[in-house]
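Thread: "does anyone have the structure for this chain?"

Original post by V.I.:
We have the sequence but no experimental structure in hand. Need at least a predicted one for the grant figures.
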Amino acid sequence: MKIPCPLPMLALASLLHAVPVNAAEDTQQDPETIVVTAHRIPTSDPVLPVKIIRFEHHSPVGVEVLRQLPNFAISQAGSMGGLTQVRVRGSEANHTLVMIDGVEANDPATGSEYNFAHMLPFASNHIEFLPGAQSAMWGSDALAGVINVSTEPTHRIRTLGIEAGSFGTLVANLQLADRTKRYYYNLAVLDYTTEGTNTSRSGSEEDGYDHVSWHVSGGWLADRWRLRAMLRNTSTETEFDPLSFTTFQPVDGDNDGEHIEVLASTSLEMSGQRWFQQLQLSYLTTQNTAFADGARLSVTEGERVKATYNGSFSFNPAAELQLLVEYEEEQFDQSGAASFFGDPNQSQEIDTISAGLEYLGRTGDFAWSASLRHDDNSNFDDATSYRLALSYQFRNTSTLWANYGTGIKNPSFVERFGFTPNTFIGNESLKPEINQHLSIGLKQSLSFSEVEAELGITLFRDRLEDEINGFFFDPMTFRFTAVNQPGASKRDGAELTLRARHGNNTVELSWGVVNAEEDDGNTEIRRPRHAGNVQITHQRERLAIHLAAYYVDDQDDLDFVSFPAARVKLDAYTLLRAHVSFALTDNFEVAVRLENLLDEEYEDLLGFRTPGRAAYLRLRLSL
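Reply from O.Q.:
Generated one for you, tokens below.
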């Protein structure tokens, strides 16, 4: 079901808004400096560095914005809207926690994994990324890192944008937002449609994608208390090709997938001279429906209800204790017609009660935090996770930091109860996956001549134990099931980032290398060993030019035409993009966006063709 787009209604509201409200400075802290992910209490001074991606007019569409982060391996199943996974630092695709305004967005109906195909940050201000094992702060799914999409505005926004271009793409979005000393609000809507491209290696059928989202959020900001609320709705329809039973690669066909997602939250914050308290209630519901030749095949539905209390007490300016108490309930429902392969109909539910502590301290140039969390799971083993973070600043230009801790990933509903319970055997005795993580890094500010620069270097080591193999063939029953692997998977790597600015020119560079091995020593699939990018921006008065190049090394994948599956190599590729914008007036901007300028033919998944060269024209009006 596609929800009607309220774009005309919001456009009319913007035209009727005749009395402007002047933005005033925010109470307490500048919202542009606040990060949500580093600690349970939002802060402007985290112990560990948090990577920030700010959304400029030249930002790529969707998940492509994450390519600028080192060691982010993106696997997109063909055309726009196809299943898109992100593997961070060699981890699995469901090992990264994704949040929107601090609310978990991972889908309980799809293995608690987030489908990055639907990440179109139309109402967003920036993305935060906190790398490494962070379960001591954020619980299950935060095994490789945490991504938080922030929508809280920092200034007044009144924009209407229209974009059209290759592959029959048409985009319209409207945003009305403001922030003053006492309140903020953000109203946004997006309507994205494309005829798409041909996903399969043969044939000519195009696989289209339709996406409608709307977002409403706001807050009242008093001196001693703050009230926030958010409601977000996404409805998508994706055309995709079925897999051939002889090649196990996509072939032209009339398959569709519909996805509906509703995310809501409300929170109340109260503060005193030395204390802070926050109570947050959040809700997520999803529905995923698959069709073949117009007939409905299956429906999976997920639901998550969460109540969280965060509190902190400052003993003195250099010591703070934070407390977490959380209750989470998840539900999974699946329906469909029974077949030779089994009966998919089932309904499952689990709940988790969590408690955690974090102590933060500072002495001179040293800062540290020690965190401990325990999750009491109703249906499988409990889990305890920890984190110790240290940082030291010297000469006001250099910061050394270290992070040591554990990440956990709870078994999914399908792994525990089976996709078709009487043919794929679920394993209710599965244990959570556990990652032992260590990372160290240096952040160095540089200044010479008229150039200001910042250099970042990171080394990391991860050891994943009790990894769940969800496609294990049981020779006793001749059926597939899920098991915890006996050994440990290894991920080791390094990252380099550099940002330099000279006058109107900015150069940003990042490079990552990762060695990801399975417990048997084989290289993990869909993890390129090297990946990097360089971005150049020139901005002068009304003109802005942005050029970017992304390199992805070759990577392994599996060819299931044989059993066991054979390993194949996906070729390395380089993507070039350009964005040029010019403000004709103070309120009207014209921009051209060019993607895949080299017209690279590449695959992130075996057999799935990705889009070629593309060009788009965008008009942006400030209302």
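V.I.: this helps a lot. Confidence is low (pLDDT under 50) at residues 1-29.
O.Q.: and The chain is about 5% helix and 60% strand.
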